Amino acid sequence: MAQEPNTNTNNTAPEIIEQNGQKLALVSTIKTVETNREFQRNVQIVQQQRQAAIELKKRVEQALTLPEKEALQKNLDATLKSLDANNALMTKTYGFSLLRNYVISFVKTRLYTPLTDEEFGKISPEDKAKPDAIKLIEGKAYLYIASIEGVAANDIFRQNVQLVQVQRNRLIQLKQALDRPGLKDEDKGKLQEEFNKSEEVLKKNNEEMVKLYGFSLMRNYLLEVEESQLYTPLTAEEAAKLPAAAAPAAATPAIEAPKAEEKKADKPAKK
Predict the structure, then answer these.
(1) How far is CA 176 from each of CA 163, 181, 183, 194, 198, rounded to the nearest angstrom?
(2) How buried is residue 160: exposed, middle or buried, by Cβ count under 10 Å (0-12/13-18/19+)?
(3) Can you tell me the distance from the alpha carbon of 40 to that of 164, in angstroms, rounded to the nearest whole number?
(4) For residue 260, with 0-12 CB atoms within 10 Å meaning exposed, 13-18 middle and 19 or more buried, which class applies?
(5) What is the C-alpha to C-alpha distance for residues 29 and 93, in angstroms, rounded to an integer?
(6) How many domains does the chain have?
(7) Number of separate helices (H) and strands (E) present in the chain
(8) What share of the chain is helix, strand, coil (3-state, %, to 5)?
(9) What is the distance between the alpha carbons of residues 240 and 46, in angstroms, rounded to a whole number?
(10) Residue ranges of the alpha helices (H) in the chain?
(11) pTM assigned to the model
(12) Do the domain assignments include residue 248?
């Protein structure tokens, strides 16, 4: 676990937002792609250690012999010691603790798509020389597509990506159902009608995603978080102790980008 990630944490009164009647306190703002990646890795480490401790505790309780119990207990003690140290480091560095729940908001992300050797060869030296235009990861070239800035815009982007992926999966299911042998003509007609409508909606939404973000279901993508904010829900007692300066602000409304169409096939995505 990294010892000194670069985050913005401070001891001043936290920023408070309110979502669905729940007050949330800003714990930290995590900047740079590398620091956000390190934060996610560290969260996984402490979560895995906690799960390992839970499983070891069960094994200690179920041990049939004293030597087995003692060996497992020794292992459990070492795991808990490491977990406590890592959790304390996470609290100091990010304000994150396994004892609380959190909500993460994405403030800025970068979208890249992997390039084939042929695609990479067609890019001019001038374009390759542009800052951040090409990103090399483990010898693989990725082309910069877009930056998505703002919490609302990032939320809507992820919702739209999830939506078109669900729509694509539904289209695949319908195609498989249509290809089943022995399908009655009546049932096949209904399935074909649903397939055609679903295909039209997906096509419109995918075209809108290409126009808005340069994102298409026909390609793979890498999404790198450049800045995120970590919030923790407050209990009623904690909220009551907030100073007046920390009064909650309403969460930013999702108005920075349109949402893709879900059901109606005769209307394009809202702009």
Answers:
(1) 20, 10, 11, 13, 14
(2) buried
(3) 26
(4) buried
(5) 11
(6) 2
(7) 7, 8
(8) 50, 20, 30
(9) 31
(10) 33-62, 66-94, 117-121, 125-128, 151-178, 185-213, 236-240
(11) 0.77
(12) no
> What are the residues whose beta carbons fall under 8 Å from the beta carbon of 161, sequence distance 6 or more?
209, 215
Alpha-carbon span 248 to 22, nearest angstrom = 10
**In this structure, are 164 and 83 located in the same domain?**
no
Same domain, 146 and 228: yes
Answer with the one of 77, 100, 123 that is the final residue of a domain. 100
- Asked whether residue 243 is domain-assigned, the answer is no
Asked whether residue 93 falls in the same domain as residue 173, the answer is no
Tell me if 39 is assigned to some domain. Answer: yes
Answer for the pair 250, 205: CB distance below 8 angstroms, yes or no.
no
List the one residue out of 232, 227, 236, 14 whose CA is nearest residue 102.
232
- The answer as to whether 246 is a domain residue is no
Q: Which two tokens stand for residue 268?
A: 């394009």
Q: What is the pLDDT along the chain (271 residues), one digit of tens a residue?
A: 655 554 545 556 788 999 888 999 999 999 999 999 999 999 999 999 999 999 999 999 999 999 999 999 999 999 999 999 999 999 999 999 999 999 999 999 999 999 999 999 999 998 888 888 998 888 899 999 999 999 999 999 999 999 999 999 999 999 999 999 988 999 999 999 999 999 999 999 999 999 999 999 999 999 999 999 999 999 989 888 887 655 555 444 332 334 445 544 343 344 3
140 in the same domain as 68: no
Regarding whether 207 and 160 lie in a shared domain, the answer is yes
Range of the domain at 197: 108-237+253-271
